Amino acid sequence: MAIEAVLFDFSGTLFRLEADESWYADLTRPDGQAFDVDEKAEIMRRMTAPIHHVVEFDEETQYAWDHRDLDPALHRKVMMKVLRASGVPTDEDAERLYARLLDPLEWTPYPDSAAVLDLLAAQGVPVAVVSNIPFDIRPSFASRGWDRLVGAFTLSYEVGAMKPDPEIFRSALGELGVPAEAALMIGDSAEADGGAEALGSRFALVEALPTAERPDALLAALRRHGLVE
User: Fold this and answer.
1) Nearest to residue 110, comparing CAs of 11, 191, 192?
2) Beta strand pairing call for 183-187 and 5-8
3) With 57 labelled, which of 4, 76, 114, 158 sits at a CA distance of 20 to 30 A?
């Protein structure tokens, strides 16, 4: 069956959270030393880790982690613990970093995100963004005029289901009016985004590399599936 719709993940697929030095201004380790490059990168990775544990949790925090993208309050609770366990020295510092995570205008698009959205729109192929996330990402698109290119934003905290639960993919496909067998899901997690295959959709994996290191993976994924020449 020909592909009639494309579903995209958000974090690590269309956009990536990338910090500049302003994120770490006045931030030091508990020993008073500045965070090095690797430590800063690890903090960012832990804030955006899609599936796997990044620190040890007690039972209450484990519940918050497992349900974090369904409830903004649970997400905040667990991420405060993750940041403090990652060496962020104070609650105030953790709050400052967390606020930037929640700001959709802080996220950086991949170099080919605009191109794939434009190409699909030109071909009349509808698009949905399917994301495990506890906040509204629509401003990331609207600020660039890309919201008109997205037929559905299917966000876990709004629909009450998280990838890989088939329900979140079913919701997106229902909004687009396309059968699962005619859809392609593109994402950076085989475990989460690959859940679309349970409904019969195709899946393409991209790596969640820094945006400067991944110029055309989305275009390549479309090309592999016959959507780009």
Assistant:
1) 11
2) parallel
3) 158
